[in-house]
Amino acid sequence: QITSLINHKDKPKRSDKTLQAIQRVGQAVNLAVGRFVTVGEAIANENHELKEEMSVACIEARRAGETIAQLTDVASLDHPESDSHITIFTDKTGVVKAARLLLSSVTKVLVLADRIVIKQIITSRNKVLATMEQLEKVSSFQEFVQIFSQFGNEMVEFAHLTGDRQNDLKDEKKKARMAASRAVLEKCTMMLLTASKTCLRHPDCESARINKDGVFHRMRLALEQVIDIVTDSRPNGENEMAPISIYSGIKEFKNKVEGLRENLYFLSKENLSTMLEVILEHTEDFTDSAYTSHEHREHILELSKQAKMELEQLVSVWMQAQNQKTKDLMEDLEVAILKTCQCMNELKREVHGAATSLAADLLKYHTDHMVLKALKITGVEGNLEAVAEYTCKLSEQKDQLVEMCRLLRHVSGTEPLEITCIHAEDTFQVTGPQIISAAETLALHPSSKIAKENLEVFCEAWESQLSDMSLLLREINDVFEGRRGEKRVYLSLPRPGKHNANLKALKPVKLDTEEQAKIAKLGLELHLLTSDVDSETEKWEDQENEVVQHGQGMSSMAYSMYLFTRGEGLLKTTQDLFHQAEIFATEGTMLASALHAFSDQVHEDDKPLLLLEAEKLISMCKQLQITAKASAQGKSATFTKVDACILKTRNVMTLLCQLLPLCFKLLRKNKAGNGCLKPAPPWKEDRIRTGTNAHIPERRVETFGIKSLENHVTNMTFLESK
Question: Can you tell me the distance from the alpha carbon of 573 to that of 655, in angstroms, rounded to the nearest whole number?
């Protein structure tokens, strides 16, 4: 609004409509500033240490808003301006000054409010730390119950504050680090409860004490990491930064090599050689790994050797081109650049294949959790010898998974995924020994219900992390194959005038800022629904199922439509959007057909409900197709059509959110009835064999679950009975 005021063109003739529009904008700015300042003043009254600074900034903002309102009070003017009344037309510099004052004072209010939020998080962390110290020292159950109840409430408060902060972070790396730290805190809260109970029940047990100390230590580290992110500080310099990955190294190296086309002198050959040397050093993580296949190792070594040769050739031609810039030499340089980049792409593909194939094999092999089951059984039996045997197997499994995470980090493709790999590595590294100490405690006290419950909690954390690794692997593959940035987008989009003869007469239109603002709420609802649909499809073991495939396709298209409401993504014009809506409706109709086929697999009692939902879907998709194909002439009619298309897409997605869990439930019910769950095939010959069927656990979302924390607090009464 301020920009439109500053940039308005002075015309000799000013219509009443123009004058009224200017006045409306000025009043709107003043009203918005008034509301903003009211909130700022309320914050100031609650925080006395910043009250004076905040009050001054609020007064400045209010004064600037009022000045803008006065200078734009032009609707009552006659066309020949009154000399006594200063307006935007007579004093445009006054509006510019007021706008600058307004923006600087508003920024100051925001910065001060941010300082208050940071202080609240630090205060909340300090409360949690103080209560943790009390929990470490308690010696009776009754005292523990009281203090843990207080601790639970403080953790819930911390969860709310840090959750809001995580949503506000713009830096994706910080967001990922915050999510990882909060996930640790959520899981450790339950671990702290059972580990402390076990220690209280068996105060002389060394393994129980080690188990409890490990949880407290990990929680303190996570709390410190949250504060480092919030305050943007790294006490030990840059040691928090992860080492460079092969992917990021190759990306930077290729950028430098391709930069030679524009400038032959912007870097030295030593610089380029050093960069390649660093990349090839990192490939040793793969070639030295005991878990890399012989074939992958040989290919990586061959490509490393080839990369050195290609760089030597490139440097040779490059040096010649610096001395004599002939056409032939420039062509030779182009060939050398292409061959070097191609070699690096092949190396990137090879390390990706090595890491992801290892991960897929390991996750498939460990999905039955046989070692954990064996530890629970032998622990309850009090069989110390068998527990020792299985703890060795778990240590081997931990080493495999840690190595897998390290290799996946090299090929993760984005910084947030890289951070997620580092978090996963840390989780396996820490949780493995904690399971071992919990199992040893149970073996020493086989009749202890608390020790058994404690082992269960740590095993669940391990299983949850394995489940999350399957999702992480899928995301890494999606990034590598170009299927997602923030989220997959629907790439087979028909372009206006290219695929449809009826579009020749239509002029593509973009939404302006005001129209985007109007449909922003609808777009946000669509975004949330796509997240819900993605969560539902990820639960399915068979990702090739037609229902899942169509659901994912619809979610991807709906996400593209959400991006359109923000003025982003592949859909650039309203005509793009209408095409996308038509394709979305077609995909929905195909899903309905898949549901009809799916209904043949379910029990007769469940069939009518599924078919009824499928008919609803067909009807809604037909309505959307009619709306998308309807002609719209003029700006107002086009916007109405956009609004209707997004609204009807939202309605279809809402129905899809109900359909997918219903299908999943019926599928599981049918499988349970037929007993057709398939065990996972063995990965190695020395696999622990039992008669139980394997299964892939459902996804556990690694976020700081406020509800789960609240449940910990409300369910504390059972402790008193013990």
Answer: 27
Where helices occur in 601-634 by DSSP H, the ranges are 607-629
**DSSP label at 486?**
S
**Residue 631, amino acid:** S
Query: Cα(332)–Cα(309) distance, rounded to whole angstroms?
Result: 15
∠ CA 124-129-432, rounded to 5°: 120
Distance CA 415, CA 522 (A): 30
If one counts every other C-beta atom within 10 angstroms of the C-beta of residue 242, the result is: 13
CA dist., res. 356 & res. 359, Å (int): 5
> What's the whole-number average pLDDT of the chain?
82
- Domain boundaries along the sequence of the chain: 1-75+89-113, 120-231, 246-358, 513-671
CA distances (Å), origin 117, targets 156, 160, 168: 16, 12, 11
At position 553, the amino acid (one-letter code) is G
269-287 vs 294-323: helix crossing angle, rounded to 10: 180
Please state which CATH number belongs to domain 513-671.
1.20.120.230
Neighbouring residues of 45: CB distance < 8 A, sequence distance ≥ 6? 51
**In terms of Cα–Cα distance, which of 185, 276, 324 is closest to 712?**
185
Count of beta carbons in the 10 Å neighbourhood of residue 491: 10
pLDDT at 659 over 80: yes
Q: What is the DSSP letter of 49?
A: G
Tokens 């009050």 identify what position? 55
- Across 347-351, 384-388, 438-442, 531-535, least confident range: 531-535
Residue with more model confidence, 92 or 201? 201
E strands present in 219-273: none
Q: Which residues contact 124 (CB under 8 A, 6 or more apart)?
A: 154, 157, 158, 161
pTM over 0.70: no
Domain 246-358, CATH: 1.20.120.330
Which of 692-698's residues contact partners 24+ apart within 8 Å by CB, and which partners? 692/368, 692/373, 694/367, 694/368, 695/367, 695/368, 696/367, 696/467, 696/470, 696/541, 697/367, 697/463, 697/464, 697/466, 697/467, 698/467, 698/539
- Contact present, 60 and 36 (Cβ < 8 Å): no
> Could you tell me if 348 and 250 are in contact, meaning their C-beta atoms sit under 8 angstroms apart?
yes
Judge contact between 610 and 636, C-beta under 8 A. no
Whole-angstrom Cα Rg for the chain? 31
**How is residue 677 written in tokens?**
């769950």
Neighbours of 216 (CB within 10 A): 18
The pLDDT tens digits for 675-722 are 433 333 333 333 333 333 333 333 333 334 444 454 544 444 334 333
Q: What is the pLDDT of residue 150?
A: 92
Distance (Å, rounded) from C-alpha 261 to C-alpha 333? 8
Fold for 120-231, please state it. Four Helix Bundle (Hemerythrin (Met), subunit A) (1.20.120)
Tell me which H or E stretch contains 519. helix 513-538
Overall CATH class of domain 1-75+89-113: mainly alpha
Res 575: pLDDT:
86
DSSP string computed for 410-442: HT--SHHHHHHHHHHHHHHHHHHHHHHHHHHHH
Residues 183 and 701: their CA atoms lie apart, in Å, by: 9
Same topology, domains 246-358 and 513-671? Answer is: yes
Residue percentage of the chain with pLDDT more than 90: 45
Q: Which two tokens stand for residue 303?
A: 């490509």
